[in-house]
Design a protein that fits this description.
Number of strands: 0
Number of domains: 2
Structural class: mainly alpha
Radius of gyration: 17 Å
Number of helices: 7
Order of helices and strands: HHHHHHH
Oligomer: single chain
Largest sheet: none
Length: about 120
């Protein structure tokens, strides 16, 4: 139950401010840092892993969204807290087994084929 609250707090903070810190999550839920870390540890995860995953999910969504097509991959990465583009590309590929560029290309090709139908 507390783990879900911690996850919800992470997601909420990500939509409001991408540079938040773990203490603000703990404080928002009345937990000490140690308690927050234990909550995630009991799920075999870390707060940092969860934050990184949520950021990657948001970037992946934006890469596939027509509303974000005018943003560069580097701009989307920076928007969600990845300031080093090569590092972001490696982390994204490790998570999704495809580079951000490949995903963006697939989306463009799929849109084009739908238009051509």
């Amino acid at each position: 139950m507390v783990h879900l609250s911690g996850c919800s707090a992470v997601s909420c903070h990500l939509t409001v401010y991408t540079k938040f810190r773990t203490p603000s999550i703990a404080q928002a839920h009345g937990l000490s840092l140690s308690q927050l870390y234990r909550v995630f540890q009991s799920q075999r995860s870390t707060v940092g892993d969860h934050i990184r995953q949520r950021r990657l999910d948001r970037i992946k969504y934006e890469l596939t969204s027509p509303a974000s097509r005018h943003f560069t991959i580097a701009a989307l990465a920076r928007k969600w807290g990845f300031l080093d583009t090569p590092h972001f590309n490696r982390v994204f590929k490790a998570q999704y087994k495809i580079t951000p560029q490949q995903l963006q290309h697939q989306v463009i090709c799929n849109r084009k084929s739908q238009i051509d139908k």
